[in-house]
Specification:
Number of strands: 2
Largest sheet: 2 strands, antiparallel
Number of domains: 1
Strand order of the largest sheet: 1-2
Order of helices and strands: EEH
Shape: globular
Distance between the termini: 46 Å
Oligomer: single chain
Strand content: 5-15%
Helix content: 10-25%
Radius of gyration: 15 Å
């Protein structure tokens, strides 16, 4: 099964377990981090929908969370999000 980096959207082919220090070959972002986890939710308490998880100070850093589960499906890269936000902003003030 293919997974995707939260930061650049690179398609990754990983085994069943993601090591704590594994990084994206394209952008070097940590793969075992909150932002790649299916429980990550910036609006939830501690940014996590798993109620038993411990608080993490930086959701982009590698961690030892026991609840980590890699997100399924293609994540939107940060560049894509910025582009969409810019389009929406421009559309708002379109003359």
């Amino acid at each position: 099964m293919a997974f995707y980096c939260y930061k650049c959207g690179e398609e990754l082919y990983l085994g069943e377990r993601v090591g704590r220090q594994e990084t994206c070959p394209k952008c070097s972002a940590y793969l075992r981090c909150c932002k790649n986890c299916e429980f990550f939710d910036p609006l939830a308490s501690n940014h996590c929908r798993e109620p038993q998880s411990e608080p993490v100070t930086d959701p982009e850093m590698a961690n030892f969370c026991d609840f980590f589960k890699f997100k399924k499906g293609k994540a939107q890269s940060l560049d894509d999000k910025k582009a969409k936000a810019k389009e929406a902003w421009e559309a708002l003030f379109k003359k």
